[in-house]
Amino acid sequence: MRGVEQIPWLYDGLCRVLEWTGLERWRAWLVKGARGRTLEVGSGTGRNLARYDHALPLLVAVEPAADALEASKGRRGGALLVRASAEALPFREGAFDTVVSSLVFCSVPRPEVGLAEVRRVLAPGGVLRMLEHVRSEGRLGGAFADLIQPVWTKVAGGCHPNRRTEATVEAAGFELSERRANGSMRRFVATPR
Asked: What pTM was computed for the model?
């Protein structure tokens, strides 16, 4: 079953609503901090691409879904679009100064493998900038996320609303900073330890 995330026109419509309700500011923060050679993992339909500084020496967007990658075309001239998974990034070690991830690791089948790949392609001193929704820290919210997870994961194309992504990032050898939380939404910068 295809999920919402694999239907570009539906996903873009949902994102427009979420951006209107506050996600826009968080997306702007996310890309504003990108420096040097930049990789966006799980770029989806390319909603972030036009937000990046045009002075970046290199901008590469990776997305596993062909339909979403096709929808990305034209959103930012000069960006290199690559069909690939976060779990198997086709780049050399240390290729990027910044890796950006926006609402991605909830649906990566093996997030620990994807984060190991991110760490591998980051240059020394590089940073990972993430915007994710995570399992609610509240008892009721967390229980609800656990309850709906099996159905939600099918409907939303692999999204797991009950992942503890921050803990997974730390377990993958990153240190978190510039962390901000709003309900189940998180944004943070992570650097390899």
From this structure: 0.86
